[in-house]
């Protein structure tokens, strides 16, 4: 028999890929999303979509009372680094209080397994690469700080209430469901791969490369791009791992690619140029972020199916080329 799961933010980019994976293996899924960024069409018809704000404790209580969940996957959050530096108090307060509202409702309903979307932004400007779970936690954005506060609060919920949680620090989520059914559709879009593809397709303006004077081989920033379906697989494996207690994992491919290498990949896969220019650095961008996911591999047997950048970009290109207006639900 399948499980029954609550997915907050399940109409959004990463969440919708986990929802699809869950329903395809026969689980019952309830998505809680207010659609501020998410899309109704990203939620499969066999999942139940509750359109509500996750900070609404009364509504949360009703949802937990109506279904007995085996676990919660918590994706819904404010997640733009730049915006968090213009409005840090909102990021800290909303991300913390909303997450605690979900965790509190879970504890009250006796649902004691909780998977949190955390972030590489916890590590700020890392002292060494690759970044494993023992690396110093030192966020340099209010967004990163807000996720750290949630991780810390969840540790107390474990100690006092027995709420077992997994904090999954994703590096750069990228790519799309290979079936072509769902993909990334943010507005505003801030992520490199969809912006580069949009520039090549002519659906977005030319790309600006943020900084060419980083201490890297070609002067542009290096990131660790991890496919959303590999993230989905990690979430399922971590559910089983929670039987042994709370845990935290860094999730990436372990290989870094520069902004210029991403542009090259998009040009190779798309077969057309990515119009771009070179601009100044973006504030708060570390030169290099690459994960060590050795712990995740050892403890859960996880291994990425889409380890090569071209394979990740190919699925993203297919989605954007087939859906130039994304889900097509914006006014
Ligand atoms: N995309 C990445 O590269 C990345 C990297 C690290 C961590 N993360 C984390 O993963 C999670 C998902 O990221 P994403 O890129 O899929 O974001 P997204 O914006 O596509 O998805 C978030 C979803 O949550 C919903 N939502 C937000 N606030 C809500 C609220 N208060 N009430 C109800 N629904 C709400 C949005 O409508 C959206 O559908 C976030 O927590 C983010 O911080 C993402
Ligand atoms: O128009 C653009 C957009 C991005 N970049 C560069 O491309 C790289 C990747 O940028 P993204 O915005 O795609 O991703 P980030 O690495 O900034 O952000 C990711 O990692 C963060 C943690 O560091 C957060 O978790 C965030 O949610 C997640 O998307 C960076 O070097 C950035 O400077 C450009 O050159 N031009």
From TrEMBL:
Pathway assignment: Carbohydrate metabolism; galactose metabolism
Presence of keyword Chloroplast: no
Record Pfam families: Epimerase
Top-level taxonomic group: Bacteria
Gene3D superfamilies in alphabetical order: NAD(P)-binding Rossmann-like Domain, UDP-galactose 4-epimerase, domain 1
A molecular function GO annotation: UDP-glucose 4-epimerase activity
Record's keyword annotation contains NAD: yes
EC top class named in words: isomerase
Boundaries of every NAD-dependent epimerase/dehydratase domain copy: 6-252
Enzyme Commission number: 5.1.3.2
Catalysis: reaction(s): UDP-alpha-D-glucose = UDP-alpha-D-galactose
Keywords: Carbohydrate metabolism, Isomerase, NAD
Needed co-factor(s): NAD(+)
Subunit structure: Homodimer.
The family this protein is said to belong to: Belongs to the NAD(P)-dependent epimerase/dehydratase family.
Protein name as catalogued: UDP-glucose 4-epimerase
Annotated source species: Belnapia mucosa
Annotated gene: galE
């Amino acid at each position: 028999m399948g499980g029954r799961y609550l997915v907050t933010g399940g109409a959004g980019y990463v969440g919708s890929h986990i929802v699809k994976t869950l329903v395809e293996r026969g689980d019952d899924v309830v998505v809680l999303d207010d659609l501020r960024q998410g899309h109704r069409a990203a939620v499969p018809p066999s999942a139940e979509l509750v359109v509500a704000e996750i900070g609404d404790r009364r509504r949360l209580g009703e949802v937990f009372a109506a279904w007995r969940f085996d676990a919660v996957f918590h994706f819904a959050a404010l997640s733009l680094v730049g915006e968090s530096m213009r409005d840090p108090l909102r990021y800290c307060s909303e991300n913390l209080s909303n997450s605690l509202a979900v965790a509190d409702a879970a504890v009250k309903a006796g649902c004691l397994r909780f998977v949190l979307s955390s972030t590489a932004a916890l590590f700020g400007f890392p002292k060494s690469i690759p970044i494993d779970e023992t690396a110093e936690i030192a966020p340099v954005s209010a967004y990163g700080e807000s996720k750290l506060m949630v991780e810390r609060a969840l540790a107390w919920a474990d100690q006092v209430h027995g709420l077992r949680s997994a904090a999954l620090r994703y590096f750069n989520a990228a790519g799309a469901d290979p079936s072509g059914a769902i993909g990334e559709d943010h507005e505003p879009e801030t992520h490199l791969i969809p912006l580069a593809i949009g520039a090549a397709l002519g659906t977005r303006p030319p790309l600006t490369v943020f900084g060419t004077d980083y201490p890297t081989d070609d002067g542009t920033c290096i990131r660790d791009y991890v496919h959303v379906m590999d993230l989905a697989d990690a979430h399922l494996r971590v559910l089983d791992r929670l039987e042994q207690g709370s845990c935290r994992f860094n999730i990436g491919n372990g290989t870094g690619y520069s902004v210029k290498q991403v542009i090259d990949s998009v040009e190779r896969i798309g077969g057309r140029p990515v119009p771009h220019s070179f601009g100044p650095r973006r504030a708060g961008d570390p030169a290099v972020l690459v994960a060590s996911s050795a712990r995740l591999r050892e403890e859960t047997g996880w291994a990425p199916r889409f380890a090569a950048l071209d394979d990740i970009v190919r699925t993203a290109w297919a989605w954007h080329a087939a859906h130039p207006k994304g889900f097509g639900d914006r006014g």
